[in-house]
Structures are given as C-alpha cells and as structure tokens.
Amino acid sequence: MKKYLAELVGTFILVLFGCGTVVVAGDKVGILGIALAFGLSLIGAAYGIGPISGCHINPAVSLGVWTAGRMKTGEMIGYWVGQFAGAILAAWVLSIIVTGVDGGYSIATSGLGQDGWGPGYQGGYNVTSAIVFEFVATLIFVIVILGSTQKSAPAGFAGLAIGITLVAIHIFGVHITGVSVNPARSLGPAIFVGGKALAQVWLFLLVPSLGGIAAGLLFRTKALEAA
Questions:
Q1: CA nearest 14: which of 183, 191, 203?
Q2: Nearest alpha-carbon partner for 45 in 88, 90, 21, 14
Q3: Which of 52, 56, 123, 149 is most buried, most CB within 10 Å of its CB?
Q4: Radius of gyration over alpha carbons of the chain, in Å?
Q5: Domain count within the chain
Q6: Within 13 Å, how many C-alpha atoms sit on residue 163's CB side?
Q7: Does residue 227 fall inside a structural domain?
Q8: Spatial separation of the C-alpha atoms in residues 172 and 132, rounded to whole Å
C-alpha cells in the first residue's frame, strides 16, 4: 500500500504543478516554462518517492515496466489506481484554486490544462499528428526510463535524466497535443473540463499505453537491455 500511496502523491505533484502552470501562468512563462514545470515536478517527485515506488507516476510507464518483465500484474494495477486517483485529486484541487480568481474562471471555456487536438486547440494539428506524436514521444520517454533504471545504469541519475527528457518532449509537443505521454495526466483534467476534452481523452489513454508497451518489448527482448 505504501507504494500505491507514493504513486498517488507523485502523480498529484506532477499534475498539480504541470497543469497548474498551464492554467495560471502559461501566458506568462510560455512553452519553455510549461515544459520546465512538468519536468522539474517529475524530478522532485522522483527523488521524493522514488525510493518507495520507483516513481512511475504514469500508467504508460507502469505498463512498460510490466511488459519488460520488471513488475507483477497485481502490482501494476495497484500503481494504476494510485496514479489515476492522484491525477483526479490534483485536477480537483486545481479547479478549486483557479475558480477563486477575481472575476471568476470558467473551467468549461478556459480548461484545466487538458490535452487535445484539432481546430481551436493549440496549433490545430490533426488526429494523425496527435497519434504519431504521442506514440513516438511515449516510446522514447519509456525507453529513457527503462534504460536509466536498469542495473548497469549509473546510480542516482535516473530522476534527472527522465525529468530532462520530459522537458524536451514538452518543448516539442505542447503545440501538438499539449503533451500527454501519461494517461492519468490526461484523464484528471478531462473529467472536470468535460465536453471536447472528455470526448478526445480516448487517444491519450490508448496511444501512450501502446508506446509504453512497445518500449517494454524492446527491453524484454533484450534489444535495448545492457549486457
């Protein structure tokens, strides 16, 4: 249970500070600031809860770890419960914070940092662009995670490498989908925003999961596993 609670706390940190930066300060800090908010939140969580759970804080990561043969099925499901609960709780807390602004705030209109694609969202990229980006970005992200946490990797640096990779992914992809690479991060805000965000969340549940599986297979088959 301690591992699952740690995953809840870590995912809460990532979603609250990442999506919170999008909503509260996105127009001030820009893409680089948003990217740093997600990446630095992950680094902080990694060193805070990593010794307990490994700091997956992402169902696609846990799926990749399971596919690579490093995790049991029951444990993965427990991680998922903690991750989705943490993301939903963070989105709820964020909704309380942002609606307290002077003059009011419409979550349905202005959102909670949810992911999406198509006309009216970020750069207006189509669904094909969204699918390709989310798959490739998650594949790369999980490869970095599995590679930097294998036994022969330098100890103590995984959190930093993973966080920096998440920063790079956001710099590239914010204008494409807002960047998911994490089903929990996408579902939390979408539940409270509803409408188009909820209608499109299927992509961010499915495609990053497939990317995580693909990365896991590369390690399970020893294609990227260190000798």
A1: 183
A2: 14
A3: 56
A4: 16
A5: 1
A6: 22
A7: no
A8: 13
In sequence order, the 6+-apart residues with CB closer than 8 A to the CB of 118 are 124, 125, 126, 127, 200
Domain CATH for 44? 1.20.1080.10
Residue 161: phi and psi, rounded to 5, are -60, -40
pLDDT in tens, 79-137: 999 999 999 999 999 999 999 999 999 999 999 999 999 999 999 999 999 999 999 99
Cα separation of 85 and 108, whole Å? 21
67 within 8 A of 84, measured Cβ to Cβ:
no
- The pLDDT of residue 37 is above 90: yes
CA distances from 9 to 32, 134, 204, 217, 222 (A): 25, 24, 21, 28, 32
pTM for the structure as a whole: 0.95
